[in-house]
Recover the amino acids of this structure.
């Protein structure tokens, strides 16, 4: 087992290589009551059953669970089960589930303990780590939320064996992001024929843990973790969430690389490496040309917009992030043509 410590408003461990059922038993032994939040697919697949101290809230699948209506039902379940401040919530599922579980924990009784057990690769390296919790608003992704760290993040690598290839590939987009912004070794490992997922996951989490520990509430440094996400979030919403988060971020990273070539002199080879590595995992790297105008409207609602100025994270070279604090729509339009189909 590998342990990476993260410092947010408190210090907590990310444990890579645990047995998740044993961890649930351990958590339930130290809290009077535990509410497990998990999608229907997880509950049915693993035949999860309630006991006197362990109750379940079953969510819809994917992004459909990240809305105020589902959150309100979680609150009602907490009230019905008498979840108190000494009790805990466990989120078992992909990134959408841990986002929801964390936000429910942060808002119930002004904050109770919660644990993240991510079942997707993207959840393991990104959503469950860092303390960002939340739901989607009608106007955009993750616009409602809080910074609220879990007590522990518990990663059982056996979940990877159950994932469809598409979900593994989508998760690799977040892993590769960490390589592009901070750890070239990840990019090398990603080119091996036999992927060492434990090392890839551990290194990606280490990148995020280092950044989050220095800038928990995203005053500036933490923004580098949004590489590819600014356009990616807009694409994800524009697609009606038919694209996986990692698929949208993949397109966003190629866009960010092209923007970096134009604005910070990123080399042609580095841009090509983005395209080649992402394509190796069957990830999309382009988006329809006629979608630019609606995407631009969505970009204007991005959390990083300041004083109506569109802001992006780029890189000047692999491992060297840069900030683009006022990018004109005309520049974005010209760069978008390089990823359009």
């Amino acid at each position: 087992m590998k342990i990476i410590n993260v410092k947010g408003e408190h210090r907590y461990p990310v444990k890579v290589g645990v047995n998740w059922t044993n961890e649930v038993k351990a958590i339930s032994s130290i809290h009077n009551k535990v509410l497990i939040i998990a999608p229907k697919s997880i509950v049915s697949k693993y035949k999860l059953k309630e006991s006197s101290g362990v109750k379940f809230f079953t969510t819809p699948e994917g992004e459909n669970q990240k809305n105020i209506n589902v959150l309100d039902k979680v609150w009602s379940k907490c009230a019905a089960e008498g979840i108190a401040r000494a009790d805990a919530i466990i989120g078992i599922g992909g990134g959408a589930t841990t986002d929801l579980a964390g936000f429910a924990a942060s808002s119930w009784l002004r904050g109770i303990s919660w644990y993240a057990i991510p079942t997707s690769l993207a959840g393991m390296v990104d959503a469950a780590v860092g303390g960002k919790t939340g739901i989607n608003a009608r106007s955009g992704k993750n616009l409602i939320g809080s910074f609220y760290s879990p007590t522990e993040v518990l990663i059982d690598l056996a979940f990877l064996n159950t994932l469809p290839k598409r979900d593994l590939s989508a998760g690799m987009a977040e892993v590769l992001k960490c390589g592009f912004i901070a750890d070239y070794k990840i990019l090398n490992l990603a080119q091996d024929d036999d992927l060492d997922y434990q090392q890839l996951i551990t290194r990606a989490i280490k990148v995020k843990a280092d950044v989050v520990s220095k800038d928990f509430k995203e005053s500036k440094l933490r923004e580098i973790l949004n590489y590819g996400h600014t356009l990616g979030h807009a694409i994800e919403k524009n697609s009606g969430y038919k694209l996986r988060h990692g698929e949208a971020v993949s397109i966003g990273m190629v866009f960010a690389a092209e923007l970096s070539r134009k604005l910070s002199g990123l080399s042609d080879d580095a841009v090509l490496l983005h395209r080649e590595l992402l394509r190796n995992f069957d990830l999309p790297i382009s988006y329809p040309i006629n979608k630019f105008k609606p995407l631009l409207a969505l970009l204007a609602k991005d959390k990083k917009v300041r004083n109506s100025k569109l802001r992006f994270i780029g890189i000047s070279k692999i491992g060297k992030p840069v900030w683009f604090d006022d990018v004109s729509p005309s520049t974005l339009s010209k760069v978008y043509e390089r990823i359009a189909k």
